[in-house]
Design brief:
The protein is of the alpha/beta class. 28% of the residues lie in helices and 15% in strands. The strands form two sheets. Strands 1, 2, 3, 4, 5, 6 and 9 form a seven-stranded mixed β-sheet that branches. It binds flavin mononucleotide.
Length: 271
């Protein structure tokens, strides 16, 4: 069998976890291990296809309690062809709400058999306080152990039933996106918010090359012409700390989360 770690990961948390699960699984089963990163637009041009001898660990961050909606067409194009699939989400200490169950549904709709699933707390994309510095060593060890446990189940033929129904979350007909609120409890729309750029930007173009939506102008990184999903790749990756948000609604939402969701959350595994 072949093990694939497949992920979208603008600030690296999902990558760390999905690779750790894949490492545990492939080591336990002594089989070959492959990595497929679809964070950049150019990596989402081909259709990903697997077959029944593959085990796929598929990971995305949680965005507004769901699978990132801008990725849906790509995820729904994946063909699993009866491969064994392990959906994984990372979330920034608020909640993964319906995202893991939604990702499991996508895997099954694409022809995969969901043998396990996991939700891992990880530093919030737009905060350094929420789940700060996670995944930590303990999280990575748990992810590796989870992979080994799955490997053990596959070797014993103890996994060929779907675990989708045991995954927490609402069914596909009642799911909603989490909506940020202002100080009076009114919904705020942050969809049009984009980062600003300080004069300390040295035009190294790192942000241009790493924006998952190719939204930053290729000649002038201070111009963000396209859609921004607030993934914070450009903010956390900038070596000059030159990118920042100044939208008051967005900053309120960040502070609100940092006040309400500070206590350490547990990893949740399903198998
Ligand atoms: C726009 C946006 C919305 C998010 N929504 C949630 C959420 O609903 N719940 C949560 O706990 N974390 C949320 N997060 C945090 C990310 O899921 C988390 O930080 C994730 O680990 C980032 O993964 P990455 O490092 O692979 O990019 C959100 C992040 C962004 C950018």
């Amino acid at each position: 069998m072949r093990v694939f770690s497949v992920y979208f990961s603008p600030t690296g948390n999902t990558k760390t976890i999905v690779l750790a699960v894949g490492k545990g699984l492939s080591e336990k089963m002594s089989c070959s291990f492959y990595e497929k990163n679809f964070t950049l637009l150019k990596d989402r041009e081909e259709v990903f296809s697997f077959d029944k001898d593959d085990i796929v660990i598929l990971g995305t961050p949680v965005i507004a309690g769901r699978v990132p909606n801008l990725l849906l067409p790509f995820l729904q194009s994946m063909r699993f062809n009866k491969s064994l699939v392990v959906p994984v989400v990372t979330f920034g200490n608020r909640s993964y709400d319906d995202a893991l169950r939604e990702l499991a549904d996508i895997c099954e709709d694409g022809g995969g058999i969901v043998i396990g699933a996991g939700a891992f707390p990880a530093e919030h994309s737009f905060s350094t306080i929420l789940a700060s510095d996670r995944p930590d060593d303990n999280d990575i060890s748990c992810a590796i152990e989870f992979g080994k446990k799955l490997g053990n189940m596959v070797e014993k033929n103890d996994c060929f039933h779907s675990v989708s129904d045991s995954i927490k979350g609402r069914d596909r007909y009642t799911r909603e996106y989490y909506k940020p609120v202002d100080s009076r409890g009114n919904h705020i729309d942050i969809r049009k918010v984009k980062p600003k750029t300080k004069d300390s930007c040295d035009y190294c173009m790192w942000c241009v090359e790493h924006c998952p939506l190719e939204s930053i102008d290729k000649k002038d990184p201070k111009l963000i012409a396209g859609i921004c999903m607030k993934c914070c790749s450009c903010i956390k990756g900038c070596h000059r700390n030159a990118k920042f948000f100044d939208d008051e609604g967005f900053l309120h939402h960040k502070r609100d989360l940092e006040e309400k969701f500070i206590s350490r959350k547990d990893i949740e595994l399903f198998y």
